[in-house]
Each structure stands twice: as structure tokens, then as C-alpha cells.
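Troubleshooting entry. The earlier prediction with zinc ion gave an output that would not parse, so I re-checked the input for stray whitespace and re-submitted. Clean input:
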Amino acid sequence: MTEAPTLNLKIEFGGGLELLFDNKRSHRVALPPPPPSDTQAAPTDINYLIQWMKDNLLRERAELFIENGTVRPGILVLVNDTDWELEGEGEYELKEGDEVVFISTLHGG
Amino acid sequence: MAPRSCALCNDARAILKRPKTGQQICKDCFFKVFETEVHNTITEANLFKPGDRVAIGASGGKDSTVLAYVMKTLNERYHYDLELFLLSIDEGITGYRDDSLETVKRNQEQYDMPLKILSYDELYGWTMDRIVSTIGKKNNCTFCGVFRRQALDRGATALHVDHIVTGHNADDIAETVLMNIMRGDIARLGRCTAICTKGEDTIRRSKPFKYAYEKEIVMYAYFKKLDYFSTECIYSPDAYRGHARAFLKDLEAARPSAIIDIIHSGEAFEVKEEIKATQKVQQTCKRCGYMSSNDLCKACTLLEGLERGMSAAVITDRARRKLEAEGPTPADLRTIPFFHPPTASASPAVEVESTA
Ligand SMILES: [Zn+2]
Ligand SMILES: [Zn+2]
């Protein structure tokens, strides 16, 4: 089994979510591969990225970002400018250079 | 995974899954269907007639920013022949409204629309900052809601507009339907899905985004790179509304049509005439001339409570009686300038903020 590489990704926030992430709208991150498990290789997918972001990028109020292992309902996700609902949502497997955007729809209009 | 092509043009790559239909569509088709559906909402409800002066209630947030952009686009594309204005209310909330008003000022230039800003401070002599520092965070949303409604009408009257459009979207309306059911407010339930409301002599108010999903509004703003402001009001949380919204988002995640289904349910309720009749007859406020169902309008009552240091007076009947027992209203009490409701006569030139 070959070990998955570290992926360089661009993460963007909008709709007020940036407030939870050091008030920075744009982040470049090096996402390490998931820890190996003896059963099977864990995928480097968006579900894993969300968990990793919670542990490494998020500064406050995790409950406004993550709920039941995925983003809280009302947060839109785009992968390379495409709605993640077209890309398998959390199961989308990330590639080097991917750009992932998280936008909250919950803030006032 | 091979990229899917658009369900509408069968050509370009799909970038969005529509919550309403589940269709996967490309960027250009998305812009087109989103705009066309708003246009259909407007024409099917006969919202405007040529020559109307229309104010867009602009907060700087996503919904009203997209609304201003789409109203301008449709007005030009379909020759509505409307005169469009931006109308903003400055509640006086440091770090929230002052920042969002900067966004509205940029929108004024980007969309080339005259802007009028009316502040609580100039109208009522109180900013929300001062109200909250006086009464605390418990009932401040009541004050803000009553004050905003009247301020919008007065701002619209100053602009001599016929009509105010607001950015309320399908999610907002579904949320209001749920809240009215949960509160047992059947009279409001009967009214809250109306696309256009009009009091006796009030200015018409309507919601061109009544059937537009919040997800699509946010995606539209994202793909058009529109400039909007997004932070929660620092005084808000209306906890009850927050729960209703979270519940609605959970429903939508399980079944996206839930939003439109709830609106349709709200529309289908037939509210009995005797319940509708509990709405009191409208008169004008004896103190400020604004529409009211009592001698004093809600804003005047709230303002008197604030000025006399008895703000609870407006929240409960018992406190209200206490206020009355404290004696008559002092003659030098701060009041709201007298309101002269709009008349059908020709609209004179109005003062608006210059773009400079
Ligand atoms: Zn297309
Ligand atoms: Zn009054």
C-alpha cells in the first residue's frame, strides 16, 4: 500500500464563516494524509478535510461549522467552483491543488 | 467522475444542483432561470406598472444586494420602466450597521441607484446601541422591529415611492409560516405568504424573492461576485426564530422541496373571516399621524416607555397600566415627527444622498 501524499489546497470562506477562522477569507493549507488504519486506507475526502479543519484551522464555536461529522445545514460547499452536491458531497476525494469554498447562508439578508 | 453536462442546454458543464428541482445546470443557465423565475413571480402577481417609483429595502446583506442587482437587470431587460431607489435604515448598531451601510453605499455606485438612509437616531432620538444599553438585550428585537417598519414607510414616503420591495426569500417565508403555526398566530399565518401587502394608506410592500431559495440567492451572489456584507446582528438572537431556522435547514437537507412545500401549505390555509376580523380597524396615531390600530401607534408607545424610563410598559399589559397610573404624558416628551401619508398627487423632486 503506497502512502497518500500531502495535498496542497486552497480553502475560502464566505457569508460570515471566516469569522470562525481567524477572520481570514482565504487559507492555503497542506493537508496531511489520514492516519493509516489496519483495515483499509482512509480516503482523503471532504469529510476528512472538515474534521481536519475543525482540529487545525477553526478558532471558535465549532458548532456553527460542524454537525454530525459534516458541515452544519445551511453551509454551502463548492469544489473548484462546482456545487459539492454534484461531486459526491463529503465523499469527494481531494486532489492536489483543489479549491474548496465554504459559504454560510445563515447570516442576515 | 466525468463532468455532467447541463440538464437545460445539454452543453456546458453543470456547476449547481437546483434545490427546487434537483436539476444539474451550468452557470449561464442558472443565471437565466433564476432571473426568469423572479421575472415570472413579478409579472404573475402584477407587482408593478410602468412609471412606478420603487424602493429596494437595502441592508447590505446577501438578499437585498442580489435583489437590487436582479431588479436593475430585469428593469432593463424587460422594460418595466421603473424608477429604482435604495432605501436603508440605520438602526445605530456600532460594528454591524455602520459596516453594512458602507456596503450599501458601494452598491449605490455599482448599480447607479439613488440611496436614502434614514436613522433611528434622527427619527426617534434613540440608536439601538443606546436602547440596548438602557433596556438590555431581552426585548430589543421588539423595539427594533416596530421602529424599522415605521422608518421604512417614512423613508419611502420621503422618496415619494409607490412601492417597497424587500429581499425576503422562500426560506424566510417558510420559516415565518412555521413560526406562526408554532405560536398559534392564525391571523398572521393567513397573511404571511402574501407576495404583496398594503394597508389602508400605506405603501405597497412586496417580496419578489418569495419563491427564490436562499441557496440559489447565495450561489447567484457568489458566481456574480456581488459585494455583500454578512455578520449576524450583534444584539439579535431571536432564539425562537433561530430554532425554526435550524429545523427548516434540517428538513431541507433531508428533502429540498420542504421549503416550497411549507409555503404552499401556508398559502392553502383558509383563515376564517372571524379570525381575520380580529385585526383592528386602522386609524392614525394621535401623536405622530402614522397608521395605528389604537390611539397611539406602537412606535410612539415604545418611545414613551423609553423616554419615561419604563420600557417594560410596552411589553406587558400590567406594566402598561402602571405607566398610565404614573400620570399623564409629560408635555416635553420627545415624540416622532408628524407623518404625512403619501397622497396620489404627482411626485415632486426629492433629496437623496449624492453619489459623490
Ligand atoms: Zn446550461
Ligand atoms: Zn405614533
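This one parsed fine. Confidence is low (pLDDT under 50) at residues 344-351 of chain B.
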